[in-house]
Description:
Blueprint: H1 2-25, H2 32-60, H3 64-90, H4 97-134
Amino acid sequence: MKEMLYKIVGLIAKIHNYILSLNDAFEYNFSDKELHFLVIGALGLGLIFVVYPVFKWLARRNHVMTIAWIYVFTLIVVITFAIEIGQKITHTGQMEFADIMFGVVGFLAMFLVFAVIRGIWHGICSLLERHKDEE
């Protein structure tokens, strides 16, 4: 886990240094905070241009549960990483990638059970509706 986090931090540091070198090369003299404002703002807007059409397409096809699942899955990943980083900082446990994976798999397993129960419920409702229409 520690090695993976160091790789991610190293990659982010390389990107950060590249952006700083562009800032210096073009003599813009943006501060670190101004660069964060610009880069994270542009990244967020870029993600909106990707995510919005996908979610709109899913919503038109009545796949709101899929949208909710994507959102919750993202939150679960962020929360599990935050818990592990918090354990490392506070020394209240070992920071392990396996803990993150087990947490995410726990969510996936529980959601699978929910999806099966929901599917059965929708199947029963559909059968009852068809039977009601036949009468």
